[in-house]
Specification:
Elements: H1 3-10, E1 26-37, E2 40-48, E3 58-59, E4 62-64, H2 72-84, E5 91-102, E6 106-115, E7 129-136, H3 137-142, E8 146-154, E9 157-159, E10 166-168, H4 172-175, E11 185-197, E12 200-203, H5 204-223
Parallel strand pairs: 1-6
Antiparallel strand pairs: 1-2, 1-4, 2-3, 2-7, 5-6, 8-11, 9-10, 11-12
Length: 224
């Protein structure tokens, strides 16, 4: 490309912010839902129904971004209505936390919202939610999460579960890459958080989001 042509382009390149390759991930949005119970705010979690994705785990209401969604906030509100029956007009969005990128190919955008309702007002979708769980915000301000690490590696080959045949994902020899890439590499330790509670273990992505929100609340409270 000639310099004269590139000069016309460089002024429009801009400085974008975001997540590179986000379209290659499973992109989802959750609502960190708060409701007042007995004079204090509680996080509202749901235990997912056994026969859906990540069945039996505890999480916030949320789900995958659809093409019809016009904003991330809309996704959070739509999914909360579909799973818990809380209409959008009953929820006040008060903030959001940083986008979480997990090494298993998932991104999660999380909004924080308050619903001034009673738990009796919920209309739970039994196909997606086994039961609703509430825990006071104060619990997470006074209890630090347990911290673990899992090992994340990159493999250039995999094995077909049905046939036992090796599948080449990255043709190392054909591309002339160093021999070391024939064996797993990376050795990255990914931090996993867990909150054991009397109602089940809150862990993984949900625990990270809870921890992030709890830390923000603690920081703000200490400055007031």
């Amino acid at each position: 490309m000639l310099i004269a042509d590139f000069d016309k382009i460089k002024a429009q390149l801009g400085f974008e912010e975001g997540i590179h390759g986000k379209e290659e991930y499973f992109n989802s949005v959750v609502l960190v839902l708060l409701v007042p119970i007995d004079g204090e705010y509680h996080f509202v979690f749901e235990k997912r129904a056994a026969d859906i994705r990540q069945g039996g785990e505890i999480c916030f209401p949320g789900g995958k971004i659809d093409e019809a969604d016009t904003s991330l906030e809309q996704v959070a509100l739509r999914e909360t209505y579909e799973e818990m029956g809380i209409p959008a007009e009953k929820i006040e969005i008060i903030g959001r936390v940083n986008t979480l990128v997990a090494p298993m190919g998932v991104t999660v955008d999380a909004f924080v919202g308050i619903a001034d309702i009673s738990l009796d007002d919920l209309s739970v979708n039994a196909q997606e939610v086994e039961r609703v769980i509430t825990l006071p915000v104060s619990y997470f301000l006074t209890h630090s999460p347990e911290r673990y690490n899992v090992k994340v590696e990159v493999h250039s080959t995999t094995v077909d579960a049905a046939t036992g045949e090796q599948i080449v994902l990255l043709p190392v020899e054909q591309l002339g890459l160093p021999e070391r890439y024939k064996t797993p590499w990376g050795n990255y330790l990914y931090k996993v958080l867990a909150y054991p509670t009397g109602q089940g273990v809150i862990w993984g992505i949900t625990a990270r989001i809870v921890n992030d929100v709890a830390e923000k609340i603690s920081k703000i409270a200490s400055s007031i």
